[in-house]
Design brief:
The chain is built from nine helices and 14 strands. By secondary structure, the protein is α/β, with parallel strands linked by helices. It has a six-stranded mixed β-sheet with strand order 6-7-8-3-9-10, sandwiched between helices. The chain is globular. Bound molecules: adenosine-5'-diphosphate.
Length: 311
């Protein structure tokens, strides 16, 4: 079952086509990564999902029905531009915003208490928002985004401005929300987080969808038959057969490490058999391309192809 279906959505600003006939679907309960270079159209799509703006043509379905006003309470949105009232006190502001999302005062208080204890920030309650660092404000905004327990979370750059510890904390919380059944769409340039938490991704470039699907399947699709292997051996392997190209070698303390590309016609078993004669195999792994590499490759490929078509 899809929680979101975007069907042939086009959106034009006065002189710029921000989304051109984009279709995608988001299955319930997954973490979906919305990726793309600056200016690709990601924020425009997010704004359409939030009903801040409407598409010029095309449809968005939420749980199978056209997205409408009543769905807003089921959606949590962490915008990239964090709009907090700086002069208000943290607790007061959190309560105010939680109540705006339809929670009663007691409910809001109870849930905020839970999150403030969980994030160990109880002592922020009476501070002014402006006294918090950017990262601290971000944590507060995260709490406000999830406090009404939305079914669908839209996170625009949730890790920007966070140190590695807080990035990890937010990542873990997102995984926990997923375990509880929340569907999450994340727009981010933090590819390590994409690798870690996204089940599916969509790559948007120049207002077009250029790639989407299951993250592991995409990595498999773009793999280049490269293997990492480590041998316990006194000396390096002098020559590899033609079917293999050694991309990297390093030797230390009686261990030889290689990164090897297996060319067409060869396979990983042949490589393994070959190296076994030179020492004990300590490690043998396929190296899949990183999402970062796939992102760059696909965007560059699309840009050079579109230049040829529209010189
Ligand atoms: P992304 O989030 O991927 O960086 P955006 O959706 O913000 O991309 O923007 C896509 C394109 O649409 C950009 O070229 C941007 O300048 C343009 N754009 C976005 N919002 C507006 C607007 N309100 N008016 C005019 N152009 C806009």
């Amino acid at each position: 079952m899809n929680i979101i279906e975007v069907q042939n959505v086009t959106k034009k600003y006065s002189n710029h086509l921000a989304l051109d006939n984009v279709s995608l679907s988001i299955r319930k309960g997954i973490v979906y990564g919305l990726l793309g270079p600056n200016g690709a159209g990601k924020t425009t799509l997010i704004r359409i999902l939030n009903q801040i703006t409407a598409p010029d043509s095309g449809t968005v379905l939420f749980n199978g029905n056209p997205l409408s006003r009543k769905d807003i309470e089921k959606i949590g949105y962490l915008p990239e531009e964090r709009g907090l009232y700086k002069k208000m006190k943290v607790g007061e502001e959190a309560l105010y915003l939680a109540r705006l999302k339809g929670l009663s005062k007691d409910e809001a208080m109870e849930r905020l208490k839970y999150w403030f204890i969980k994030f160990e920030i109880q002592n922020w309650w009476n501070k002014k928002v402006e006294e918090l660092s950017k990262g601290m404000q971000q944590k507060l905004q995260f709490i406000i985004t999830v406090v009404h327990r939305p079914d669908f979370l839209i996170m625009d750059e949730p890790f920007s401005g966070l140190d590695p510890i807080n990035t990890n904390l937010i990542r873990q919380e997102l995984m926990e929300l997923k375990r509880q059944g929340t569907t999450i769409i994340i727009s981010t340039h933090n590819m390590a987080s994409v690798e870690e938490i996204c089940d599916e991704i969509c790559l948007i470039n120049k207002s077009h969808k250029i790639l989407d699907g299951n993250l592991m399947e995409i990595k498999q699709q773009f793999k280049e038959n490269i293997f990492s292997l480590t041998l316990s051996a006194e000396r390096e392997i002098p020559v590899f057969p033609e079917a293999f190209s050694v991309l990297e070698t390093s030797t230390s303390a009686n261990q030889c490490h290689y990164v090897v590309k297996v060319h067409e016609g060869g396979n990983s078993n042949q490589l393994l058999k070959f190296v076994m004669d030179y020492g004990n195999v300590l490690e043998f792994n396929e190296i899949l391309p990183s999402m970062n590499d796939i992102f760059i490759q696909q965007v560059e490929k699309y840009n050079s192809e579109s230049k040829i078509q529209n010189p």
